[in-house]
Batch of 2 targets.
Target 1
Amino acid sequence: MNELSDCPNCNALFVKTQFRIVCQECFLVEEKHFETVYYFLRKRGNKSVALKEITGGRLK
Ligand SMILES: [Zn+2]
């Protein structure tokens, strides 16, 4: 069931679904970030170092 919720990233009001836990804007940013990270992982091929960097970058 969908419900109105505050975006945990930017506090914008958006419709929360089981697939979307942040607003549209943040979702697109996250998606782009994920693509960048994915590309980075494939390019570097060094998972342990990359994962540490991802964790550090995503947690505030
Ligand atoms: Zn947001």
Target 2
Amino acid sequence: MNTAQCKGCGAAIKFIRMKSGKMMPVNPEPYMADQSRTGKEIFVRPDGELIKGKSICKLDPGTKHAGYDHYIPHWASCPAAKQFKKQEKDRFEQATIF
Ligand SMILES: [Zn+2]
């Protein structure tokens, strides 16, 4: 997985390739998430699937959690993302790639 730094806030981020081929910036900490609850949090799975659920606990990023690791899109927690208007969110995602 690629690692980088967010241009907006300087935080460490990772990129996950979405099914569409687009790279999604995510926070590097994996979470265990439950899809069966009525969670409203958005997670990205390492296979590029976007899911809605509820975080259960933070996972140790140093170990493998095949099938259990879910990542939070960086723009959901980035303090700099608030500067961006909703319609510019897409452009923001693109901009963080380079
Ligand atoms: Zn950021």
